[in-house]
Amino acid sequence: MALNSVLILTAGFGEGHNAAAHNLAAALRESGAACGVHDVFEEAYGPVNRLVRQIYLFVINHVPAVWLVIFWILDRTAVVGGGIGVFGRAARLLARLIRDQKPDVIVSTYPGYGHLMDLVRSRGEAGRALVVTIVTDSITVNSVWFRCGADAFFVANEETAEVMRSAGVPPEKIHATGFPVPLEFSGPAPERSGPPYEVLFMVNSAHHLASDIVAALLPIENIRLTVTVGRDGELGRMLERLAADKGVPLEIHGWTPGIGALIRRSHLLISKAGGATVQEALAACTPMILTQVVPGQEEGNARLLIESGAGELAAGAREIAAAVQRTFSGGAEVYARRLEAAKRLSRPDAARAATRILRTLTT
Questions:
Q1: DSSP characters over 177-214
Q2: Can you tell me the mean pLDDT for 254-266?
Q3: CB-side neighbour CA atoms (13 Å) of 166
Q4: Could you point out which of 31, 62, 110, 272 has its C-alpha 20 to 30 Å from the C-alpha of 204?
Q5: pLDDT given for residue 190 in this prediction
């Protein structure tokens, strides 16, 4: 069986799932394989799926203790596998996609699809396709990811591979390919010099804290601050006024497809511990200051950064500003150590590595 066609399944519940899906798709298409990317739950359930997504985002950002309980239930029980039959419409849509595309490989970047594929396979509707799951979390991997019949699991690092082996996943099924980041990360790295040092603050869910954080960062000497505000234009205008009042230059970006270039040029990234964000920072060899960690799935991302020495956690504007000052003070010795730690974890060619292994598995 050759690798001619790949069906990739993703979902909008977190940045990492879509990022991994589309980055892998780019590498597959580069290699000559036909590739389709589908959010089957969105296509099957539309408004209901979007409502559930909004509830999920509200819970993880505003009542994380509730999400921790849900994460524990998903990890310790068979509620997903046992209840997957209620998603009959999604299963029928997935079976139709398989019939139409006739993929050699079906890749999932969202844990629910592993169980949905088990249902489709049990009905004899999966064809001969190899089923692969890309685990987008690190270390604190919920068992819902691997309590399914996938033929192979691709993980971001050896630490995560060891966690899954210890949980009973057959070692031959696990491949530490790295997290699929954009292909641009494997190109020549932009030259970094300093001072001034480039600091990138990516505003995520805590928009109400952004102005306090920026106000604390602007007076720091020897840094050049860039802030991304997504689609929050009002926040961008507020930060522009804040910087103008202080007489300090500030570069602001709204939603931009060039976020990879911003990360790669920066000496330091300030953001939450999202799977895609952490892995892109590591791929770019950009140390991080973490501002928020969602209980459960993001705890492993934070552990990976902190225990390796590639970053630290700082909660609150004053703490974040102090961490930035500490990073670049005294000849930037802290930055130099964190840069070396990030280099040891960097996997900028992970999407192509995953493509090569997929070709090996289908030979």
A1: ------GGGGSPPPP---SSEEEEEE--S-HHHHHHHH
A2: 92
A3: 9
A4: 110
A5: 86
